[in-house]
């Protein structure tokens, strides 16, 4: 006949289950609210120093089709992006296709200019994922928004261009981008950026779950208590 599990064993089994839940990867939820896309160029564009400060709100229902200059496929038509540029939101990732607008003897660039230490940049504000807090990101710059393959970015490293400004705002520097030479000048120089957001769970009903190390200490304490009870 099997003996009933002791309270200590039941406690340890419950702790083991909690540890497994904590170690299991959470499903990637998608964005749950409207996102404001801003194009900011404090120094204007090449040949025109008038500062650029444009923005457009993308409704949550339109995030997957997003913004596109010369829109197609249902995307929102945008008048202030460079030709062929686009911004879409897929799952918990931001996709940006950045095109060249200027080239000279030193290289091929977007043509957006920073000023006074402030970068020309895209900002994505209002990023919200259900039950999650954004704590970081992974960045890729490969054609087709892939994680490897052919890249249109010559320099700098893609990760250096992206910044987490606060818990719901991410920016992408534009004035630092140097495009790879595809042999066609500005006509097809572009880079596809994929920004995968890294999140953590907000916790159970807004609270915080114990760290796995804390649970392990509790388990050790429970074992010790059980051993002492048996010796007594």
Can you give a write-up of this model?
Pfam families: PEP-CTERM. Residues 1-29 form the signal peptide. There is one protein chain. The protein is α+β, with helices and mostly antiparallel strands and 232 residues long. Helix content is 16%, strand content 34%. The strands form four sheets. It has a six-stranded mixed sheet with strand order 4-3-5-6-15-10, with no helix packed on it. The radius of gyration is 25 Å and the shape is globular. 23% of the residues are buried. Residues 16-27 and 204-209 have low confidence and may be disordered.
Quick tags:
232 residues; Ice-binding_C; single chain; six-stranded mixed beta sheet; PEP-CTERM sorting domain-containing protein; signal
Describe what is shown at a glance:
The chain has 232 residues and is of the alpha+beta class. 16% of the residues lie in helices and 34% in strands. The chain folds into 2 domains: 7-26 and 207-231, no CATH class; 35-201, no CATH class.
Given as residue ranges, the uncertain stretches (5+ residues, pLDDT < 50) are 16-27, 204-209
What is the topology, as strand order, of the major beta sheet? 4-3-5-6-15-10
Largest sheet: 6 strands, mixed
End-to-end separation in angstroms reads 26 Å
Please identify the structural class as seen in this structure.
alpha+beta
Q: Cα-atom Rg, whole angstroms? A: 25 Å
Give the number of DSSP strands.
Answer: 15
Assess the beta-strand content as a share of residues.
25-35%
Helical percent range? 10-25%
Average pLDDT over all residues: 82
